[in-house]
Amino acid sequence: MRGVMMYGPGDVRVEERDAPVIIEPTDAIIRLSATCICGSDLWPYRGAEPLFTTPQPMGHEYVGIVEQIGADVKNVVVGDFVVGSFVASDNTCEICQAGYQSRCIHNVMMGAIGTQAELARIPLADGTLVATPGQPDADLLPSLMAASDVLGTGWYGAVAAEAAPGKTIAVVGDGAVGLSAVLAAKQLGAERIIMFSRHPDRQALAREFGATDIIEERGDEGAAKLKELTGGYGAHGTVEAVGTQESMWQAINATRPGGYVGYVGVSHGVNLDGLDLFFTSVHLHGGPAPVRQYLPELIDLIWARTINPGKVFDLTLPVEDAAEGYKAMHERRATKVLLTF
Questions:
Q1: Among 58, 176, 67, which residue's Cα sits nearest to residue 111?
Q2: Pick from 54, 115, 112, 43: nearest CA to 84
Q3: 232-275 pLDDT tens trace
Q4: How many CA atoms lie within 13 A of 247 on its CB side?
Q5: Is the previous residue joined to 296 through a cis bond, with omega within 30 degrees of 0?
Q6: For 196-226, what is each residue's pLDDT tens digit?
């Protein structure tokens, strides 16, 4: 089968890989209908974090049709169209039952398997995969693809930021996760949604998704601008969707005392001084998003065409051109790239 491999920073290739096989009776094999490139895939691409192996299979987002199931799989059947989380989980342990499936005690990170490929083995299939009501129309594929990670992550960020009616929610980061957080905050009823963005195309999509205000300043200047827009108070909650030192403090400083920061950007080089944090009096809640918790609701919203999160994909390429997709996202010529087979 064809699959995307990364050999090192900037070195992405599409090669023949061994087709996956059932290893555990709880496994399923799916044939992907589409896959995509995530912003977090850019960290190793840019050399900001080491590869686990060299070469490393890439990808952790996936939708497709079940081709095989292990003997113990009961919740999906061959032929189902399914969406799964970027973290495989049993969905039965105490952590899963508390709503944090991404930290399941038996979790498997799908990035270690690599889903930018024609076929993928999904561990813990019963707890990970959610079948759609039927075979989706082609135009729903991008939105269902978004549900596998960025939509669920943005949703978690908005939930962690306590988005709700009457609240002002800010979003730091105008990539696919940040844009999804805007959409989520709108769906959750936030009264005012303030997006930090310097890119006109992303600003336009943020407004379409529900943003009421745009701030182009960043860092301390951006946080000060938000305080100015909110009468000196700050946002009730802020979604941090980048993962840098500057973005984290921008989110914290944009949030009023007693407010909530939902941090879902994968942290790189973030260090929080305890005394500085102490005097902010904010709640911090985040980490890897428990996408599996939200998948049934998100699929229903997409299926009913209530939301269209697939608009975050602004470049579609055949999987053979994955290297160009990585380059386009690295150079910020694309927000998020959909790969087709």
A1: 58
A2: 115
A3: 999 999 999 999 999 999 999 999 999 999 999 988 889 999 99
A4: 24
A5: no
A6: 999 999 999 999 999 999 999 999 999 999 9
